[in-house]
Amino acid sequence: MTPWPYPRWIAHRGAGKLAPENTLAAFRLGAAHGYRAFECDVKLSADGVPFLLHDATLERTSNGQGTAGERSWSELSRVDAGGWHSRSFAGEPMPTLQAIAQFVQRNGFELNIEIKPTPGTEHATGVAVGQACTELWRGRTTPPLFSSFRPEALQGARDSAPHIPRALLVD
After folding, report:
1. Main-chain dihedrals φ then ψ at residue 149, nearest 5 degrees
2. 10 Å Cβ neighbour count for 27?
3. 153 contacts: CB under 8 Å, gap ≥ 6
4. Active-site annotation holder among 54, 85, 123, 163
């Protein structure tokens, strides 16, 4: 059996509650606290762009309204994902998976991508995230780890990126 390639401590959604979750600001703060691996939640915009957001809707962690997966990336890129947390993070954008991949790779960090599909898009989200990560991690020795509570999402990821390890999350 291959040894576990990921750090044992993983910063949840970047820096937990210290910064607005699933933002580059949260990842930077987590790194400043010594974390070398991060977990994030990834879903698809209406036009197929993988981006970071935990909830199905925008209200809790942004100034947006409605179901995130029904919005184009152009709309989502203009949402303030930091102001809800505190004034010092106002204007923080939601990042794409590509932006997070660049951050972790440039800094030598590892990533656990929780595939968090909009209901009804489980398999398609897994496929899209798998395809994106195949390109984003091409030539890298340690790929990200996929996880999800949705077996259909993991099946989609397996269909498009069988070389990337997967983990089923359970309550």
Report:
1. -85, -10
2. 27
3. 115, 117, 122, 123, 125, 126, 129
4. 54
